[in-house]
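To: structure subgroup
Subject: Chain for Friday's discussion

All,

I'm putting the inputs and outputs inline so they're searchable in the archive.
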Amino acid sequence: MTNVSSIFSKLSRLVFQPHSKERPPFAVRESDVFIVSYPKSGNTWVRFIIANLLAQDQVINFRNIESIVPDIHKSLKNIPRMKGVRIMKYHEPFFAHFPHTIYIVRDGRDALVSYYHYNLDSGQFQGSFDEFLKSDIYLRFGSWQDHVTRAMEQRLRYPDRILFIRYEDML
């Protein structure tokens, strides 16, 4: 618990310096923490870990996680009303506008196969893996390589604003 507390303490003291025209769809606060990853890279897993640390008196599940560590893609209307430090899940790589980022990176081969099967199973895509890699769904958040490259560039520019976590290290 002490290590997590010190990480969040350090994250909350960092300074926000925008450098990009891409922006999240709400006003970002200097205390905001974004959990970012390419889809199917462990973002929800990290989100549940953090929610359990923040709300130790609750049983965290998919019914209540949105009120503790919301997914921007699902809870956008509620985020501006949140008080205090907001820790949010996001897939968009708008790193220049994120004052604090926890970035989860997963082996691209595993992330892409998982993302492909997720979209097949949910009915959002029908076709081969090769067709998926050429689809708009795959490119919604940019390619895996572009996403990770942008995060790595941000880490080089502002190492105190981004914490990298490897999915494989959490196994």
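Points worth raising on Friday:
Strands lie at 33-37, 87-90, 101-105, 162-166.
Confidence is low (pLDDT under 50) at residues 7-21.

D.
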